[in-house]
Design brief:
Elements (H helix, E strand, L loop, with lengths): L9 E3 L2 H6 L10 E2 L2 E2 L2 E13 L3 E7 L4 E7 L4 H8 L7 E11 L2 E11 L5 H18 L11 H6 L15 H12 L8 E2 H9 L6 H13 L3 E3 L5 E4 L2
Parallel strand pairs: 1-4, 6-8
Antiparallel strand pairs: 2-3, 4-5, 4-7, 5-6, 7-8, 9-11, 10-11
Helix pairs in contact: 5-6
């Protein structure tokens, strides 16, 4: 099995790829075509919603297959609605999380779900998933400039430091990731948003609104997640 930097980051998958992923045994890492899978991000149409006492199941379809995304309810309905929003049947959503299995059924245990505001997102996502898969199988795909993409750079061993896998992110988002990784508590209870804002604003010219929007974008992409509350963040690794 090939281990790459992608096994510690977020990999886009089609729903067919989620269904093809497998484990050597119940405690093993999930793999697809010989490559270890860490977190995944999927996009699909919601065709059914099943609400249970402790969780909500969203059945998604994307034209390649069908997969359930499960998210766990918060302590109160207000917190639940604020974090997850009001997802409805027939919406297109993006879910980020880890592949799990119950019996013979695979599902994505979601740490983040958001509705898509771009009607083309599902098509872009499928092309991105295909690009990543091909680059892992056949080596880096280089563009007109001769440079490998962020994903292919990682899969070819070009990522040799902690920030290599984040080179494709906008500067402010990269700086936030750097701050989170630099804090001694980044692997425990998370880093408070105030610490992040103070460190980032030292660079000058960065507003609180810009920081908030960058944090939201990183959350949507599955690069970071909240820990003990909505004010503490941790890098998804």
């Amino acid at each position: 099995m090939q281990r790459t930097e992608l096994s510690h980051s977020v990999r886009p998958l089609t729903l067919a790829q989620v269904n093809k992923a497998h484990q050597a045994h119940t405690d093993a890492e999930w793999t697809l075509e010989g490559n270890e899978i860490g977190q995944v991000t999927i996009v699909g149409h919601v065709v059914n919603i099943t609400e249970q006492a402790t969780n909500v199941l969203y059945t998604l379809e994307d034209g390649t297959g069908k997969v359930e995304a499960r998210r766990w309810k918060e302590q109160s309905s207000e917190e639940d609605a604020e974090k997850w929003g009001d997802i409805q049947v027939n919406q297109v959503i993006r879910a980020t999380g880890h592949i799990k299995a119950f019996g013979n059924r695979k599902y994505v245990n979601a740490i983040n779900i958001r509705p898509s505001e771009d009607p083309h997102e599902i098509y872009f996502h499928m092309m991105e998933a295909l690009t990543v898969s091909l680059s892992l199988q056949n080596g880096p795909v280089r563009g007109p400039s001769g440079n490998a993409s962020a994903y292919t750079a990682q899969s070819s061993g070009m990522a040799n430091d902690d920030m290599a896998e984040y080179r494709h992110l906008p500067p402010l988002q990269r700086e936030i990731i750097k701050v989170l990784l630099a804090q001694p508590e980044h692997d425990e209870g998370g880093v408070h948003v105030g610490v992040v804002a103070k460190a980032v604003q030292k660079q000058g010219g960065v507003t609180g609104t810009a920081i908030s929007e960058a944090l939201d974008a990183l959350m949507d992409a599955g690069q970071i997640f909240t820990t003990s509350d909505d004010a503490h963040f941790q890098v998804s690794r």
